[in-house]
Amino acid sequence: MRGHRGAAFNFAVAGMVDGPGSLIFVKLLLDTNPHASTLNVRYQSGDTALLHVLKHHEGCSWSHKGYFMPLVDLLLAHGADKGLHNNHGQTVLHKLASSPTYNEPVCPDLLEALIPFVDINQADANGWTALHFMARNLRQIKASRLLVSRGADPSVINKKGNTPLHEAVGGRLIGRRMEDGSLEGPALSEKIQAQDEIISILQAGASMDQPNMAGKTPAQLLADKRAQWEKGRE
């Protein structure tokens, strides 16, 4: 019976994670059935409620922090297991790092709260660590620096032979969503500055001359990316 309740809880969280109403609704569900096992029942993908919520992280905007952080705190307070991973080997850090956080940086407080409970260098089924995901999003300078300072290894290679440095030199700086709904694209200088900062963080433990499985080094990929930017692409 408890497994059925957990599945129902996950279904409810999946449908309610996108707005302030989710906090009240999830709290009501937990007050009705406060067992930790309910929170840690897995989706078919192996995701738990916490893993599912984290992949919807949208940065540190005040409107989002007003319900997202309390929602995460609520799940943790009721016994959500921070150390679990899904069927693809992705931990809470993978989910946070690969969330669609383009307009805003990842909340450092949330990152700090999760790091102690997982292997920061755990690779998923494709060999990606959280740092691989974080480095390819050029808005995540502070988050990448924080991961490295806590022991994330910039030299780990994924199944394509890419280190996080390979991902960073091929990374993107997505435009910011404005209040009127329009998307403001970054200037070339802003993209270069952000990329240079992440590269400087990762070069402490990885080489610009290390080829991947396709024979491409970060230095070569960087030259290709800058040429695209100069032509106004992306």
Automatic annotation (TrEMBL):
ANK repeats lie at residues 126-159. PROSITE patterns: ANK_REPEAT. The keyword Repeat applies. Keywords: ANK repeat, Repeat. It comes from the Eukaryota. InterPro entries: Ankyrin_rpt, Ankyrin_rpt-contain_sf. This is Uncharacterized protein.
